[in-house]
Amino acid sequence: MSSLPPAAFPQREHDSHKGNFGRVMLCGGSRGMAGSIALASIAALHTGSGLVSAAIPDRCLETVASFHPCLMTIPVADDAQGRFSVDAITTLAPSLDRFDAWGCGPGMTTGEGSMRIVQHVLQATKLARVFDADSLNCLAKINWGQQPPLNHHHLVLTPHPGELSRLTHVDAKNRDLQIEAAQNLAAHHHVTIVVKGGPSVVVDATRRWTNSTGNPGMATAGSGDVLTGVITSLLGQGLSAWDAARLGVWIHGAAGDKAAARHGQAGMTAWELLAELPQVIAAFDSESM
Ligand SMILES: NC(=O)C1=CN([C@@H]2O[C@H](COP(=O)(O)OP(=O)(O)OC[C@H]3O[C@@H](n4cnc5c(N)ncnc54)[C@H](O)[C@@H]3O)[C@@H](O)[C@H]2O)[C@@H](O)CC1
Ligand SMILES: Nc1ncnc2c1ncn2[C@@H]1O[C@H](COP(=O)(O)OP(=O)(O)O)[C@@H](O)[C@H]1O
Ligand SMILES: [Mg+2]
Question: What average pLDDT is seen over the chain?
Fold first, then answer.
């Protein structure tokens, strides 16, 4: 392995069953961006989740379901543009507690239906959650950084510099100030934040950790969506927000390094990165360590 992982990967007892490894929900997608939530959901399967469901706008269901037979799909009401409708939250709200972790945001747009979902999931402070992509843009729209703090210890945010800039109003090009602003936001709302980049930096209220895996080949559409699924899966398997974020970023970067070695940095896509996750995770099996 390229460097030591920052936290232990969950081990499997001989008599364990799928219920021991977390039931997770990935919520997102829209017409034209069905691939994003499919990538996140399949990544959660390959990271070891026992059961993975994808909640998606109804007209994306066949597309997302057809990517992987092990994925369960939950059709949710959509609008004329194929985005979550304003009623979507009524389908989703009763099932919040049935899951060990929720990953929310890839491809969901910031339409009114998504805004309602994000605000509802945000209030579920006991639930382990990952907010990525458009769910972060929804938070920016409600100026979340200025809102009164809540205890969000089980929430991980995964912004790229553009999303972080919308959340904190700090220029995407100023890396140092962005990391500082992320740490201030983390302290305010008690969250863990992955400040994406090469390398990604994970912060919470008091700690900073810099990743040692990954490469510029990962600057390709969908690679962040894979990370959402990996971290959601680790949260669902019981890791803390801080450990799930760091181990998730490390695994994701290690898979990116394997994909680059096999296909080249320019030739790899997020699909090849996803396909390398099992090789990275196989190295955690106690027999092969
Ligand atoms: N296959 C799919 O369906 C995909 C859908 N996606 C979805 O597309 C939607 C839009 O997301 P995008 O991230 O493309 O668009 P955004 O508009 O959020 O981000 C792009 C902009 O952010 C800034 N930015 C991003 N990374 C930066 C960096 N490293 N340094 C400096 N600035 C940076 C730049 O200004 C850039 O123009 C989201 O819902 C996302 O989930 C993407 O995840 C890509 C794949
Ligand atoms: N130069 C780089 N070096 C290492 N990792 C990178 C580099 N560029 C991008 N990445 C990683 O790729 C991912 C890109 O995420 P994101 O911008 O959200 O992509 P998308 O939304 O298209 O899925 C992040 O995990 C980021 O850290
Ligand atoms: Mg992204």
Answer: 96
Instruction: Residue 121: give the domain boundaries.
Output: 22-288
Spatial separation of the C-alpha atoms in residues 66 and 159, rounded to whole Å:
28
134, 137, 196, best to mutate for ligand 2 pocket (most atoms within 8 Å of CB): 196
CB 160 within 8 A of CB 193: no
Ligand nearest to the CA of 194: 2
134 is in an annotated binding site: no
- Give the CATH number, domain containing residue 109: 3.40.1190.20
Residue 176 is predicted with a pLDDT of: 98
Helix (H) or strand (E) segment spanning residue 99: none
Residue 12 lies inside a defined structural domain of this protein:
no
The structural domain count of the chain equals 1
- The answer as to whether 3 is a domain residue is no
Integer Cα distance of 116 and 57 in angstroms: 14
For ligand 2, is residue 140 a contact (CB within 6 Å)?
no
Give the model confidence (pLDDT) of 83-101 as tens digits: 999 999 999 999 999 999 9
Establish if 6 belongs to a structural domain: no
2 within a domain of the structure (yes/no): no
